[in-house]
Design a protein that fits this description.
Blueprint: H1 6-25, H2 44-61, H3 68-86, H4 93-110, H5 115-123, H6 126-129, H7 134-146, H8 152-161, E1 180-183, E2 198-201, H9 212-215, E3 216-218, E4 221-234, E5 247-260, E6 266-279, E7 287-299, E8 303-316, H10 319-322, E9 330-344, E10 349-362, E11 370-382, E12 387-400, E13 407-419, E14 424-437, E15 443-457, E16 460-472, E17 478-491, E18 496-509, E19 526-541, E20 544-557, E21 564-576
Antiparallel strand pairs: 1-2, 3-4, 4-5, 4-21, 5-6, 6-7, 7-8, 8-9, 9-10, 10-11, 11-12, 12-13, 13-14, 14-15, 15-16, 16-17, 17-18, 18-19, 19-20, 20-21
Helix pairs in contact: 1-3, 2-3, 2-4, 2-8, 3-4, 3-5, 4-5, 4-7, 5-7
């Protein structure tokens, strides 16, 4: 968690008041301003601000288990606060720009992989937004600094030397331990249900010490051992419309995680865990479920390469089968491989392509999984330093598990991505999709797709996810899915984290065109699914946390047997070394 000195908050308030009075008096001046010479001497206060910001950004980027999206938000917040505080009392545009460039370089050298995020955060501060061409100079400085990265130790030594009296490096406080993420493995949701929730816990220092050094293999590499113990009570474990059956599911989940390059242009991670799952009332045989993931990323500013891989063994309930009167929990293996490459063709134009592969395989005879291969192509045009518009097309091939008719999906889209305002960022597109399966008539689907993040406060964020796409049902149906989910998360205190989720999904079931088993399914079935959840996490130490989660689900359907209500209460204890 980023801590903001009280003096910085005073500076921020003064900066806001200054901006308001400047606009009211009509004296806000714009025009191209040259930055002071880069070799000009810096004041001790300016050096301190650059060193402190580099420390903060380095600590955030070193958090091995925090998602990149979360790192981007926190780095953006830290940079904005530092720039506003450092420029609060400066009125000359060249002074403001000079300070901003110094902070940009210091932050980017500490975290070169986040050059774009840092450049956008600096450019969006009110003092810089009023200076013509400042955004271009800031962006150039960020990309140049990214090519000369400093290690966290070098950054801290440089900051320490600029202070009077000089403080020995040995006395410098250690970086906080990394945030950890863990996933409950008992009773995961079906593919057409909302995705599994991830519980994230910010590190809390215990007695002023960090656990990071115990698992660090160097300034850029970490290795962690994890263990989670969870218990979940599900009052309708088969998702039945009548004669509901409840059960309590226990899971012990040991795992390992390895990450590298968290402060470099190239970075990646590997993790694997096994969930030893037991059902108290024997509603399903006891199982051991594996879960592995890998990620790699490289971003130099002109070339971005990203890849992910995941493998999950799932034991799930399924409403499609329950609607036909069958009560069971089904084993399924899911493999996902994704890769993308984006390269700049010109200063404002880039092209992105790649390949996405997914395979879902049921271990129960009669159920249909799928194997999907997709090749996307998108062209982006930068309309401003913070926003790009795009157009693209993708081709997807669908092969059913049991050898049925093959499907061909096409997607044509127009969209935008970037930081739309100082607090709103993400991606959004309008898509026109088509699906053709064998000799069956072509299906069409219009809809929005994307994810938008809005920072309500520095400690509270919200995410809106929108998806409209085709999928394959467990009985071989061609499905049209439209889903909308809103997630809120807040760091209430250094120990308490709270979250809430509200999701709505509409599913239109088509005929079983992917199945060879002659399964009779209602062609006109339409479901409306609502789901709400509350989560709370308490951090006892940087390495020990407890999480409580309550979920309530309700499904309305044109098929009477498919309607159900379900609630799940989960408790989990998480440990990380």
């Amino acid at each position: 968690m980023i801590s903001v000195p009280k003096s910085s908050l005073h500076c921020v308030a003064l900066a806001v008041l200054f901006s308001i009075f400047s606009v009211a008096d009509g004296h806000a001046k714009t025009g191209q301003s040259a930055a002071p010479p880069r070799g000009a001497a810096e004041s001790p206060e300016q050096s301190d601000a650059a060193g402190d910001l580099a420390d903060q950004v380095s600590e955030i980027s070193h958090s091995a288990a925090i998602s990149r999206a979360k790192k981007e938000k926190r780095i953006s917040t830290a940079v904005r606060v530092a720039v506003v505080a450092a420029t609060a009392y400066k009125q000359k545009p060249e002074e403001v720009l000079g300070v901003a460039l110094d902070l940009t370089e210091a932050a980017t050298r500490a975290a070169p992989g986040f050059a774009e995020v840092i450049a956008n955060a600096v450019s969006f501060t009110p003092a810089l937004a009023r200076i013509d061409n400042a955004a271009g100079q800031i962006r150039s400085a960020a990309y140049a600094a990214a090519k000369r990265p400093n290690s966290p130790r070098q950054t801290r030594v440089a900051a320490a030397k600029s202070r009077t009296p000089a403080k020995p490096l040995a006395d410098a406080p250690e970086a906080p331990a990394t945030r950890h993420r863990s996933r409950t493995a008992s009773n995961p949701e079906p593919e057409t249900e909302a995705p599994l929730r991830e519980y994230a816990a910010d590190s809390v220092m215990s007695d002023g010490e960090s656990m990071a050094h115990k698992s660090s293999l160097g300034g850029n590499t970490t290795f962690n051992v994890t263990a989670n113990l969870s218990v979940s009570h599900d009052d309708n474990i088969y998702l039945s419309s009548a004669n509901e059956v409840s059960d309590t599911v226990y899971a012990f989940i040991p795992g390992v995680a390895f990450s590298f390059g968290q402060n470099s242009l190239a970075h990646g991670s590997l993790s694997y865990s096994t969930a030893f799952t037991r059902y108290a009332d024997k509603t399903s045989p006891n199982v051991n479920l594996g879960n592995g993931a890998a990620a790699f990323g490289y971003d130099s500013g002109s070339l971005a390469v990203n890849g992910t891989a995941s493998f999950q063994q799932l034991n799930q309930n399924n409403n499609e089968v329950a609607a036909l009167g069958q009560k069971a929990i089904f084993r399924r293996d899911v493999l996902g491989l994704n890769a993308s490459v984006e390269s700049h063709l010109t200063a404002k134009t880039s092209v992105m392509t790649g390949a996405n592969y997914s395979k879902s395989e049921y271990k129960t005879a009669g159920l249909t999984g799928s194997q999907e291969t997709e090749v996307p192509l998108k062209v982006f045009y930068e309309t401003s330093p913070k926003v790009s518009v795009s157009t693209g097309v993708s081709y997807r091939r669908v092969n059913p598990q049991n050898g049925g008719a093959k499907g061909k999906d096409m997607d044509y889209n127009l969209g935008a991505r970037g930081n739309f305002t100082a607090k709103l960022s993400g991606t959004l597109s309008v898509d026109y999709r088509t699906r053709t399966v064998g000799s069956n008539p072509r299906e069409n689907l219009w809809g929005l797709n994307g994810s938008l993040n809005y920072e309500l406060t520095p400690k509270t964020t919200s995410t809106l996810g929108i998806s409209n796409d085709f999928s394959t049902g467990a009985l071989g149906e061609s499905l049209k899915n439209s889903s909308y989910d809103l997630q809120l998360s807040t760091d209430l205190t250094p120990q308490w984290q709270l979250g809430a989720t509200l999701a709505y999904r509409r599913v239109e079931y088509g005929p079983s065109v992917f199945s060879l088993n002659n399964v009779t399914t209602p062609v006109d079935r339409r479901d409306k699914h609502w789901e709400g959840g509350l989560q709370a996490t308490y951090l006892f130490r940087s390495w020990l946390s407890a999480t409580a989660d309550y979920t309530l689900r309700r499904n309305h359907s044109t098929l009477t047997g498919a309607e159900y209500t379900d609630s799940i209460l989960s408790l989990m204890l998480g440990w990380r070394y």
